[in-house]
Amino acid sequence: MTMHIRNLLNQLALASLAVIVILTAADVASACPSCQAALASQEGGQRVVQGFFWSILFMMSMPFSILTALSTYFYLLVRRARREDAVRLPVPTTNQAAAQRARDAGR
């Protein structure tokens, strides 16, 4: 078997496994919306419902927070690298630029 076919079969097996896991877990996940109504009707259940609210809000904000943090980190790395390159490479003065053009024109 060639390496390309083997990789393709591995990817297909992994995708099939993922689909099977999702299909078997779908029945468990569908029961969650009724939990809030059942908890709210119990004594002290309002605090639990409030906890559900804040935990859902926190979980929904995490991908955006992580993406923002990583984007900012990489932006600052690029800015720092550009600043270091600008310090390391001297900007040619007018005389140097004119001399370079004269050398290039003479070739």
List the helices and strands and how they pair.
Elements lengths: L2 H27 L3 H9 L3 H44 L5 H13 L1
Verbal overview:
By secondary structure, this protein is an all-alpha fold. 87% of the residues lie in helices and 0% in strands. The protein contains 4 helices and no strands. The longest helix is centred in the middle third of the chain and has 44 residues, at 45-88. The two termini are 57 Å apart. The model has no long low-confidence stretch (mean pLDDT 79).
Annotation keywords:
107 residues, mainly alpha, 0% strand
Question: How many extended strands?
Answer: 0
Q: Can you give the helix content as a percent range? A: over 70%
Q: How does the helix and strand content classify structurally? A: mainly alpha
Categorize the overall geometry.
Answer: elongated
Secondary-structure element order, as H and E? HHHH
The number of helical runs is 4
Radius of gyration over alpha carbons?
Answer: 30 Å
Work out the strand percent. under 5%
Distance between the termini: 57 Å
Q: Report the uncertain regions.
A: none
Give the integer mean of the pLDDT values. 79
The profile of the biggest β sheet is: none
